[in-house]
Amino acid sequence: MGFRLEGIVPATVLPLLLTMVLFLGPLIQLSMDCPWDLVDGVRVALAPGFWLLCLTDMRWLRNQIIAPFTEELVFRACMLPMLIPCTGLGPAIFTCPLFFGVAHFHHVIEQLRFRQGSTASIFLSAVFQFSYTAVFGAYTAFIFIRTGHLIGPVLCHSFCNYVGFPAVGAVLEHPQRLLVVSFYLLGVALFCLLLHPMTDPAFFGHLPICSLSRLTSPPNSLGSFALCS
Questions:
Q1: Per-residue b/e over 61-77, b at no fewer than 16 CB within 10 Å?
Q2: Residue 11 and residue 107: Cα distance in Å, rounded?
Q3: Which residues are part of the catalytic machinery?
Q4: pTM listed for this prediction
Q5: What is the per-residue pLDDT across 124-148, written as a single tens digit (0 to 9) for each?
């Protein structure tokens, strides 16, 4: 599931663009705070030495390539096709991320072992991380079902790992906070408006995963219709 050539170009581009729209506020904030101008940024991005440095950095490889691919492969491409015949499309989108969120609890063990804060703060951080990883997992599950491709969730995952969770606290202290907050709100509004149009299954061809829902519900049921058409 998720590996096919039909619709590969829109499946690569559209989900990533949609995610960037959601992160419009953080991206604007980063651009304002970045010491480089656009020309310098493009020059660095095109420099072979920059990518060589990245590809020899194990942490970068883990965060940008290995973790996004393996986690999306397991929790989207493998787990969703097993859940959908049992639960249907809609419930699977919200069930699968729970496993994805729990899988990140290993950070608690690391933090406790190296005493990176008090026990209470570590567990509060774990609950917070579980919450936003579960929400993100639901989003990438939605993308996977709507596109029928794994590449979109992987790229979105890699992008979010790179940008990180929005620094909402820093926004309130930003010298141009009204402008930044406006872009945050604009990004969320545009994301809500574009979520279904930019993931329209018509862009991506036949969706094999949608046929699995017929084992539990008719293909023209409300949940199946909303996700697969």
A1: eebbeeebbebbbebbb
A2: 31
A3: 71, 104
A4: 0.86
A5: 887 888 888 889 999 999 999 999 9
